[in-house]
Amino acid sequence: MDFQFKSISVEIEHIGIAVEDLGKSEALFEKLLGVKPYKKENVQTEGVTTSFFKIADQKLELLHAISENSPIKKFIDKRNIRIHASNDQSTSRFMCL
Predict the structure, then answer these.
(1) DSSP assignment of 22-46, as one string?
(2) Which residue from 97, 89, 11 is spatially nearest to 50, judged by alpha carbons?
(3) Strands (E), 1-97
(4) Does this model's pTM top 0.85?
(5) Per-residue pLDDT tens for 7-57?
(6) Rounded CA separation 25/33 (Å)
(7) CA–CA separation, 22 vs 8, rounded Å?
(8) Which residues contact 16 (CB under 8 A, 6 or more apart)?
């Protein structure tokens, strides 16, 4: 029996990491990546503050819950590892590793 595997190509727009302490997390990633965040904003509709790092043409987003009802707060409370990937700006896929 012959098996044929198809190559799947997925372009990821950014990787997001939900964090409990944005300040400590920013300091850690600044040290690890050697760059400072290029953008930080409050997203009231999602109940988060985001901080973006850019490495080449890839982005890393730190997400910090600013309200108890935030999906990120619920995600952190439910799981131990807090990573999500997004392949465009309008949809997110959460992964628990």
Answers:
(1) HHHHHHHHHHHHSS--SEEEEETTT
(2) 89
(3) 14-19, 39-43, 48-55, 58-65, 83-86, 93-95
(4) no
(5) 777 777 888 888 888 998 899 899 989 999 999 999 998 899 999 999 988
(6) 12
(7) 34
(8) 60, 61, 62, 63, 83, 84, 85, 86, 92
